[in-house]
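[step 3/7] fold_predict: job queued, chain A
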Amino acid sequence: MNKDESIRFATKYLEDLLSFFGVNVAIDSTIDDEVIQLSIPSTSMNSLLIGKDANNLRALQHIVSMALVSHNGEVTRVNVDVADYKRQRADRIAEQAEEWIREVRSTGTSKILNLNAADRRIVHKVAQDYSDITTHSEGQGRERQLHIEKKTD
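[step 4/7] structure written:
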């Protein structure tokens, strides 16, 4: 399946999957950096689709991604968002990252945070704008932690 077919397949697959839950909506789909972006509009089922700590959202992504793999899709990475939840969360994490960085800059004390992979990526990206700050992650799986530190000369 080529790139366009992969996008169409992922969109239809997610629409069909959601219809089993009584959510009959048109999915907006795009591709960005070899990741299929699937956007579910707001419905009365938002909280169910997102789930606690966005676990249901990640499960939907995984299901669609595995369907693409099993159908030999050219593109298999998928990002599913519900009612701009992820974008809004990313904005909040970026604002929080700015506060953490200001704190590290003013106190000189490193900050160690337990964040999921998506949130760690956002903090790493924000920190790139600061020449005196460095970030790195340590650990494995759910124990992985993000470190925000002042650069040493």
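[step 5/7] annotate
Residues 7 and 84 are 19 Å apart (CA to CA).
The chain is about 45% helix and 20% strand.
exit 0
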